[in-house]
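input
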Amino acid sequence: MPAAIDALLAILRAAPGLSEALIVDGPPAVNLSDRHRIYVGYAPGAEQSVDIVQGFASAGARTRDEDSTIACYAETWAGDTDMSLRRTRVFELLAAVENALRATDAAPEAPTLNGTVQWAHLTAGALVQEQNSDGALAGLSFTVTCRARI
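output
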């Protein structure tokens, strides 16, 4: 799983649609000045960064399948109160993550997180919205689900 998380970070950092977003490994640091952020291995309120479930892949107990769910979070904010713009932008970030995980001629190994898993894809999301004295914020918790043969 550590190699898969590192590969997910590398894929997202190289994605053209995420060039304006800061891709963060784990929970947020103190400096939150970037307006568009994606956290890998962190989502507000999540009890863990990654869930892992294993089972035997076949009779004989020689190999196992490992299903993992990586908690992620996309966030965008601005000093204004236009929630529609924030909501639209956070879903654009999510779409860019989803596109980055699809196979293309330029990145045929993206769905396998560069060969670290059998497959990975975006599987769930939940939107939160806030207005405060700093402006509008839209956040989207999402999960990337993977399967590996171990």
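quick obs: The CA atoms of residues 79 and 135 lie 4 Å apart.
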